[in-house]
Amino acid sequence: MDAPVELSGQLKTVAVSLMKICNDLRWMNSGPNGGIGEIQLAALQPGSSIMPGKVNPVIEESTAMVCAQVIGYDASVSIGGLSGNFELNVMLPMVAHSLLESIRLLANASWNLANRSVSRIVVREDHIAASVSKNPILVTVLNPLIGYDLAAKIAKTAFAENRSLKEVALELAGDQLTEAELDQALDPVKMTKTGFVE
Question: Which residues pair with 40 in a beta bridge?
Answer without folding.
Answer: 122
